[in-house]
Amino acid sequence: MASQTDNPYPRIVNPQPLIDLFSSDDLMRSVWNASDLPAMWAHQLKARLISELRAVDPAWALLVDGFCTRHDPPIQTFGELFACPTPPRLVLDLTKRYAKHHLQTKTQLPIPIAGAVYVLSMLVALAKCGESVTSHSEDQVLAQAQELSRQEWIDERTRSWLEG
What we know:
The protein is mostly helical. Mean pLDDT is 85; it is low at 1-5 and 7-16. The longest helix is centred in the C-terminal third of the chain and has 19 residues, at 111-129. The chain is built from ten helices and no strands. The chain is globular.
């Protein structure tokens, strides 16, 4: 049995990093400009879930493949997952973990984009599955969704998910 210390995704105890996901300081640590974010977000929504999850953990891709290909209609992209009226909770949880991995390891995925995937995964699980995929309170998730919806680079479709 793995111990708590073996978990590569520790719980966030202090909510301040979650609150600061979309601050300008995060963009300054990135190689990307704020003007790049709309196109990068559009690209992320079209990215294939299985490919992206496989890059973090091949086992996740195997789990998601079964859920997504059998879903009616099949879910292939992040955008399809977030738009789905009945998304699989497990897929949302693994998508949240994917985003958390990118937030914690500072990969090439810009922090605001990873943050948006993180927040949407939690919000969609609450709104459409009626279940949480996080230790954050519902109020914390809703506050983050509000903050994300205020970002200039967020498109109207995403804004409707955040505000709906």
